[in-house]
Write a structure and sequence with these properties.
Blueprint: H1 2-9, E1 12-18, H2 25-34, E2 39-44, H3 51-60, E3 64-68, H4 76-89, E4 95-100, E5 103-107, H5 114-118, E6 124-127, E7 129-134, E8 147-150, H6 159-165, E9 179-183, E10 209-211, E11 215-219, H7 225-245, H8 254-264, H9 268-275, H10 280-283, E12 288-289, H11 294-301
Parallel strand pairs: 1-2, 1-4, 2-3, 6-10, 7-11
Antiparallel strand pairs: 4-9, 5-11, 6-9, 7-8, 8-12
């Protein structure tokens, strides 16, 4: 009953920034619409693989507003906040979160509105990110059937230390920064690069934050060798153009820049296999075999391939 009431009282908008994610985009949309999202604002960054056509189909259904952004300068923060402002001004958002196509924001309660709907004094929920990883089949991995592990106890280290260790240990074993889902009672609140926090620099507004006890982000950072390679090329070129024309710092998206450098050196296949070299970390308790979430993943992402 509580979930039903909150679903009707609040309007939850998801934003989505995508490029060439046809293998997961339809499952992403279905999942979030099934779990409390009322409407989606999506930006397609020049997809050529059928992603745009899936988004257009959902726009015709009346549950999605599509923005076309063909720029090859990857201005992620600007584009995300543009969608957020539109969600508030034109879509009457009471709550917002900013997702990527390779994420499922999974609420144990069944509704992404439930926790914020109950916690009236909380404005921002900080949501942990869980990496879902493939078993290593020497480059023949098939998503989603070969998703085999969940990083349930990620390694916690400073960015500098992680940068020094990823040459011999998988980047995906380290803790990712949390993401946020939040209220917008007084208008849109901008988010930082990567959607990890809200920007609360106004002296006239205070924000009560709390770690979510209901929601976790299931993240699928690597789905095949081909997909990983194309993602690194796309992101690397966009980030290179961003640095060239607008400037950036060395820490911003450092892992994507590193991977793009390895691609340019012809070493991306080597890196791919290192990312999936995971067996030793099962015994250490850093990751565990995927069990209860497997049915959910197959339900939304299995396209019968």
């Amino acid at each position: 009953m509580d979930i039903f009431i909150n679903q009707n009282k609040y309007r939850l908008i998801m934003t989505l920034l995508v490029r060439n994610e046809v293998d997961v985009i339809e499952g992403n949309l279905r999942f979030h619409l099934d779990h409390g999202v009322d409407f989606i604002v999506a930006t397609d960054n020049g997809s050529t693989d059928g992603t745009k056509e899936v988004l257009e189909e959902y726009a015709r259904k009346g549950v999605l507003h599509l923005i076309h952004e063909p720029s090859r300068i990857f201005q992620q923060q600007l584009w995300v906040n543009t969608m957020g402002e539109l969600a508030c001004q034109q879509c009457s958002a009471d709550m917002i979160f900013h997702s990527d196509a390779d994420e499922l924001w999974h609420p144990a309660s069944g509704s992404l509105k439930f926790e914020l709907g109950l916690k009236h004094r909380v404005d921002v929920l900080s949501v942990p990110v869980r990496n879902m990883l493939l078993s290593n089949k020497n480059g023949t991995e098939v998503f989603p059937h070969d998703v085999a592990y969940e990083v349930n106890n990620p390694i916690i280290k400073s960015v500098r230390k992680v940068m020094n260790e990823v040459g011999w240990r998988s980047f995906f074993l380290y803790r990712y920064p949390n993401k946020v889902i939040y209220r917008t009672p007084n208008g849109y609140v901008k988010v930082v690069q990567g959607n990890h926090d809200v920007i609360t620099d106004s002296p006239y507004r205070e924000f009560a934050k709390q770690k979510s006890s209901d929601i976790e982000v299931l993240h699928f950072p690597i789905r095949s060798l081909k997909q990983f390679r194309q993602k690194i090329i796309n992101n690397g070129e966009g980030l290179y153009n961003l640095d060239l024309y607008l400037g950036s710092d060395n820490i911003h998206a450092w892992h994507a820049k590193r991977w793009y450098g390895l691609y340019q050196q012809g070493r991306l296949n080597e890196e791919y296999h290192r990312l999936l070299d995971l067996e030793d970390y099962l015994a250490e308790g850093i990751l565990k075999p995927l069990c209860d979430k497997r049915k959910l993943i197959l339900n939304y992402f299995d396209q019968g391939l």
